[in-house]
Design goal:
about 60 residues, alpha+beta, three-stranded antiparallel β-sheet
């Protein structure tokens, strides 16, 4: 079973602000959340890990 991360956890893991996350979702540059209920969303942990791994690392610069 996949673990899902709520927004505060996604913000902590990625270092991005809420507004940046949603702006990048709108641009198609960040994974969209999945609905857990009528007013709750979360991100699959695997989607966030894949997104982080796809980012250029500081060591490569």
């Amino acid at each position: 079973m996949t673990k899902h991360l709520r927004l505060p956890a996604v913000m902590e893991v990625t270092g991005l602000a809420r507004s940046t996350i949603y702006a990048q979702i709108a641009e198609g540059k960040f994974p969209a959340p999945v609905k857990l209920g009528s007013r709750a969303v979360a991100w699959p942990e695997t989607a966030i890990i894949e997104w982080l791994n796809s980012r250029p690392s500081a060591a490569a610069a």
